[in-house]
Each structure stands twice: as structure tokens, then as C-alpha cells.
Write a structure and sequence with these properties.
Blueprint: H1 2-20, H2 31-43, H3 50-54, E1 63-66, E2 81-84, H4 86-96
Antiparallel strand pairs: 1-2
């Protein structure tokens, strides 16, 4: 019980710091409305990856990606989204957030 008494004041001092770091809150659709929105956005490209299509490759899109990420101030408008496959989404996200894209394990690569 003594440890709990020492941790509780530390958590109380961190809580205001954590909430102060949130710059904005983008309203997001949840549940059925969110599923409809995702379906509508995917239909724009017939569920095909936009970056693969630009290269002449046919790949199914699995992710609706925000061109300007919501975390970096982007909006949740249709004009700020694109449909990507898992591979492109991983690469684009790594570039946007300044990380190196990790190679996909061989068992997950498309053949």
C-alpha cells in the first residue's frame, strides 16, 4: 500500500501535462456512420490503391489514409484522404512522421 501512496501524487502532477500536449481534437465519426464514410471513400477508387494504380499495378486498398495526418493538423474531409494498400500506407506514414519504413517480413509480401 505504501507504493500506491507514492505513485498517486506523481500521476496527479503528470495529468495536466498530458492533457496540455493535445493541440486540437478532430471530430471523428464512429460506429455505423464511420463505416459508411469509409465505404464511400473507398468507392471513389473501387477499393484500389491509388499509388499502385499510378504505377500501373492493381492492388486492393485496405486503408483510407489522410494526406495531411490528423495528428499534424489535417482535416477529416474526403479531399484530404486517399486509398492505399498496407505496404504503401506503412511507407507513407513512416515518411510523414520522420521514421524509416521497416521492411515487410517475407511471409507478408505479395507474390
Amino acid at each position: 500500500m505504501a507504493r500506491l501512496k507514492t505513485i498517486k501524487p506523481m500521476v496527479a502532477t503528470l495529468k495536466p501535462q498530458l492533457t496540455a500536449t493535445v493541440q486540437h481534437e478532430t471530430p471523428r465519426l464512429r460506429g455505423r456512420a464511420g463505416v459508411k464514410q469509409r465505404h464511400r471513400r473507398m468507392l471513389r477508387t473501387n477499393y484500389m490503391c491509388e499509388l499502385c494504380q499510378a504505377k500501373g499495378i492493381i492492388t486492393i486498398a485496405t486503408v483510407v489514409d489522410h494526406i495531411v495526418p490528423l495528428a499534424l493538423g489535417g482535416t477529416d474531409d474526403d479531399s484530404n484522404t486517399r486509398n492505399l494498400c498496407d505496404e504503401h500506407h506503412r511507407i507513407v506514414t513512416a515518411e510523414q512522421f520522420g521514421r524509416d519504413a521497416k521492411p515487410t517480413p517475407e511471409r507478408y509480401r505479395r507474390r
